[in-house]
Design goal:
Helix content: 40-55%
Shape: flat
Mean pLDDT: 78
Distance between the termini: 65 Å
Strand content: under 5%
Number of strands: 0
Number of helices: 4
């Protein structure tokens, strides 16, 4: 209630409206029936691994701000 009171004091009425409408908007049966519907598209599962991935496979950041091109050296003027 403290957060709601502070929001109302600052003129932020959207959180109070959300709580006021919760009973009309939230419908548990509708949410549960969504799981029974036919899947239109299914995401593929990732490949199963038997061993842990190597350190190089886990490294996702590139060196420098420009990405892989920064490793190639300075750009030559035309």
């Amino acid at each position: 209630m403290r957060v709601l009171g502070r929001n109302l004091a600052y003129g932020q009425t959207n959180s109070a409206r959300m709580l006021w409408k919760f009973g009309r908007v939230y419908n548990a049966n509708r949410q549960l029936s969504d799981h029974a519907r036919e899947v239109r598209y299914e995401l593929p599962l990732p490949e199963r691994r038997t061993a842990a991935p190597g350190r190089k496979e886990l490294f996702v950041h590139t060196i420098g701000r420009a990405g892989p091109r920064a490793q190639a050296g300075p750009a030559t003027p035309q």
